Amino acid sequence: MTKALITIIRNWWESQPEKTQISKVHLVVGEFTCVEPASLQFAFEIQTQQTFLEGAALEIQTSPLIAFCHRCQQEYRPEIGIQYACPTCRSPLEDIRTGRELKVDRIECTALIP
Amino acid sequence: MHQTFDVALGLNLLHANQEGANHNRAHFDAWGVTCINLMSSPGAGKTVLLEKTLAALKTDLAIAVIEGDMTTELDADRLRQYGVPVIAINTGRSCHLDAKMVAGGLHQLEQDYAPQDFDLVLVENVGNLVCPAEFEVGEHAKVALLSVTEGEDKPLKYPIMFQEADCLLITKVDLVPYLDVDLERIAANVRQMNPAVTILPVSAKTGEGLDAWFAWIRAIATPLPAIPTPAVAIS
């Protein structure tokens, strides 16, 4: 996953006409994904050493798992590891509104102005 | 002077893999081949299930196997004894197959065989309940295996794999009399997040439930005529 992250940023960076210094990468990681933010943080730091991303900070924003129950017509927060069905009517988890995100939201860059 | 600025990207980390998976699926579709991705923790019984499946179905269906294994070809060698093409992909230190690795396997299948002659490609993923769930490889259906010794709570702890599965095989059910395990509870835990999943209790050792599994495979792998397109080369 770290590799996918670095590749995505590299592709963007290489497509830019002017090479900028990336100072911070803002990532959104959903709670209901297979990514552990602390591990990603660590792997990012190691794998960016001596690359164009050396020294860039990784800011991970966690997005909560929020589901929508169609029977109750309301949102609820499933308890990961314990209970996924709607706490009110026990309908199964079907409609996930947030929590599956794995995306590079934005990048902070520094450019040298002549 | 330095100027700091923000660039909004909104790029999905799995986008490249998803594109690769779609590309693989387009090849399968052009060949008229159904692809099934088998996933489970290590030791849940994927390989023995494949052995039984190949033995039972290889006369009716033309099957090839893509075998993901971290370092060895032990599983691939076991399956080759059934006389079907087995393409081994050593994932190295990677704990899952991704679309690119499977594309490499398809390349090889295309080089060594006529892929349009196959009905079914079974992909045995690396034993891991976490990462394989996030990396689609171009399959038409996902099958998860959970052995009765792993505990009823595993679907709750590793929800994504079980949420994504089209079929769940509860394996090693011959051991149920020796364990405090409730198959109904496993099923209920999975249905909480995946109400549409087909759940089949099986034992590769005694053969219990395997007919239902074979019927499930036959139903989704019914040979479709290959779409008449010019020979496709994998790019």
Structural commentary:
The complex is a heterodimer of chains A (114) and B (235). Chain A has helices at 2-15, 37-47; strands spanning 21-30, 57-63, 66-69, 74-76, 95-98, 102-112. Chain A is an alpha+beta fold and 114 residues long. In chain A, strand 1, helix 2 and strand 2 (57-63) form a beta-alpha-beta unit. Chain A is elongated, with a radius of gyration of 18 Å. The mean pLDDT of chain A is 93. Chain B is α/β, with parallel strands linked by helices and 235 residues long. Chain B has a 7-stranded parallel β-sheet with strand order 4-3-5-2-6-7-8, sandwiched between helices. In chain B, helix 1 packs parallel to helix 4. The chains are: A alpha+beta (114), B alpha/beta (235). The A-B interface holds A 1, 4-5, 7-8, 12, 23, 32-34, 80-85, 92-94, 102-113 and B 1-17, 130-131, 133-134, 156-157, 159-160, 163, 191-195. Strand 6 (102-112) of chain A pairs antiparallel with strand 1 (2-12) of chain B, so a sheet runs across the interface.
Q: What brief labels describe this structure?
A:
heterodimer; A: 114 residues; alpha+beta; three-stranded mixed beta sheet; three-stranded antiparallel beta sheet; 6 strands; 22% helix; elongated; B: 235 residues; alpha/beta; seven-stranded parallel beta sheet; 8 helices; globular
Structure summarized in a few sentences:
The complex is a heterodimer of chains A (114) and B (235). By secondary structure, chain A is α+β, with helices and mostly antiparallel strands.
Distance between the termini of chain B: 45 Å
- Helix and strand pattern of chain B: EHEHEHEHEEHHEHEH
Taking the sheet with the most strands of chain B, its summary is: 7 strands, parallel
Tell me the series of helices and strands of chain A, N- to C-terminal. HEHEEEEE
SS class of chain B: alpha/beta
